[in-house]
Amino acid sequence: MADETNERALPATSWAVLGLLSFGEELSGYDLKKWSDRSLRFFYWSPSFSQIYSELKRLEKSGYASSRMVAQDTGTRDKRVYRITDEGMTAVREWAREAPVDPPVLKHGPMLRLWLGHLLEPEQMREVLGRHQEFAEQMRRRAVADAEAAKDESAWAYPTLTLRWAERYYASERDLAAAMLDDIDALAAGRDGRGRTLGP
Amino acid sequence: MADETNERALPATSWAVLGLLSFGEELSGYDLKKWSDRSLRFFYWSPSFSQIYSELKRLEKSGYASSRMVAQDTGTRDKRVYRITDEGMTAVREWAREAPVDPPVLKHGPMLRLWLGHLLEPEQMREVLGRHQEFAEQMRRRAVADAEAAKDESAWAYPTLTLRWAERYYASERDLAAAMLDDIDALAAGRDGRGRTLGP
DNA sequence: ACTAACATGTAAAGCGTTACATGATTTA
DNA sequence: TAAATCATGTAACGCTTTACATGTTAGT
After folding, report:
1. CATH number belonging to domain A4-98
2. Is Iron-sulfur tagged as a keyword (chains A, B) (predicted)?
3. Which of A7, A115, A126, A134 lies most in the core, judged by the most C-beta atoms within 10 Å?
């Protein structure tokens, strides 16, 4: 009996790609990248083309996906499409059900810069926060639009749930930036002028 | 006249470490790691020991930090401590003021798993969300405690501002998980039983 | 014909972690 | 005196991106 325990140890990105395949469609690397950009992107970063291609190779080597070449209609270059195997389905289900719940990884560049507020003028902090607000609102709107487009397909029930989560998450990011703008104003007022706005 | 433009191109993590040094203290790699774990951690991931050591070498090579060995009191091994240079101060200030505002990087493992809800039982989704809630509440409490400890030192005014942001951010994460738990209950009720709770 | 966009990959380089090596201090 | 912890690093490895190579299709 071979020890198969370590075969299951894949990085999260592999599980993400296998998760995309777990919806059952036969997809190329290019398809997967495009889909990942419009779905995972809201709560997970979207891997680059080259990483998707190498993850697919690894998944095939693990026996979790199979591939075949398909000829295109006209003289287009052939492409390789991937499909999840039964083994892959079992493995990704087990991962989703039983992996430990790790803390999300957050690298919030704008907040890092505001943490260094002693290096900035208040005006520059407002600039950073303003741009971050715009980004958050843009993401929120995209989540709303995508959720609307998927809302009647019961196959997309759970992806739609996470889109609703994303809608609220980015609304919160936007509002948190607004609250921080207020805090900065209060701090600047307390510094410059006479008296603080905080005490009686 | 040499082209110095590309010398300024450092990864964000370098700027984070230089940012830690920009508060003016002379610190060892070990000190920086400990401090980073209690500050950056709330909004930026905390780099490993080994990366901090190698970033410090890079910063010294760039001329942004200088180091010296200091002998310890008793027979303890000597340690190397780093201090930011004037050039480093100028560079990090320029970075904080003028770098483009990039979107935060989020890798939300729990949400990835919920996106794959078709692979889970509702009970397992609740388990994942429950653990995430606990994590978020724990982070929120730590942010509150740290903000309280720093609140009267005007030198920490901006770090305290980001701690207040973190307090609200993790409160929001906790509440977003609660909202999603409700959505899952509603979806499960619509599936199982008779009729949905959504329509008239 | 030329350009831009689509599409599929490979190669090289850089980012970041885990494991390891070393040694002192404290606690049991 | 043995084990646990603090502390400082280096080495090896794995993840991820950017740059590159190749070829097709559609628009101008």
Report:
1. 1.10.10.10
2. no
3. A115
